[in-house]
Design a protein that fits this description.
mainly beta, Immunoglobulin-like, 9-stranded mixed sheet, disordered N terminus, membrane
Length: 214
């Protein structure tokens, strides 16, 4: 078992591995000990949307994420200082075309995330998202945030995500078929497929466990 560390219930501690997420939770009176072992995984480039107006996202490095904004004319900034993309009429500017894609509706897709991409994102001076890029072997995620878990490699007919809680059997929690049909097997209102990854909204202690895909 990993070394136990004590944290408030507001935080989840994650440790990166190669193909799975492992999470252990110990409850001690009013304090919670969290330890999650997680994978760095990548998927084929496919863009989805973050639906809420202000989103708090934790995403593994090297993956991608799209942030929403509506309007023909947009100015996207990072940390309220760095201008990433602008569009006014048919005229567009990019800080780096290899890293950013501006969609027709004004949404911004960030590619190949790295640690420098963490922080707040504004569209037309309005806060859209807080982004945490998960890097290294150990990281901390706040409870209540949204976590993206990409699935590595090709699949023939379907992608399936499994969760195994401590001292429990492994169970299927989400299935996505090749035709795009989605089937949440557990926690259906919090699980969905966004940004080419399993999206778990509003992280809770009961999300602890070992996660595998295919």
């Amino acid at each position: 078992k990993p070394q136990q560390q004590l944290f408030s219930p507001a935080f989840i501690i994650l440790k990166m591995l190669s193909f799975m997420i492992v999470c252990f939770i110990w409850l001690i009176h009013s304090d919670v000990i969290y330890s999650i072992e997680n994978t760095t995984v990548s998927g084929q480039r496919r863009f989805g949307y973050v639906n809420s107006s202000v989103t708090q996202l934790s995403v593994p490095e090297d993956h991608h994420v799209c942030l929403p904004c509506q309007g023909p004319d947009v100015i996207w900034t990072h940390q309220n200082t760095k201008v990433l993309v602008t569009r006014r009429g048919s005229y567009q500017t990019y800080q780096d075309r290899r890293r950013y894609i501006l969609l027709m509706d004004g949404s911004l897709c960030l590619l190949k995330l790295d640690d420098s991409d963490g922080g707040e994102y504004q569209c037309n001076q309005q806060l859209v998202a807080e982004l945490q890029v998960l890097t290294g072997n150990d990281f901390q995620v706040s409870a209540g945030w949204t976590l993206l878990l990409p699935c590595r490699g090709p699949f023939k007919t379907k992608q399936r995500w499994f969760r195994q809680r401590e001292r429990e059997k492994k169970e299927v929690i989400f299935t996505r078929f090749r035709n795009g049909t989605e089937k949440p097997e557990r926690d259906g209102d919090r699980l969905s497929f966004r940004n080419n990854a399993l999206q778990i909204r509003d992280l809770q202690p009961e999300d602890a466990g070992e996660y595998q895909c295919n």
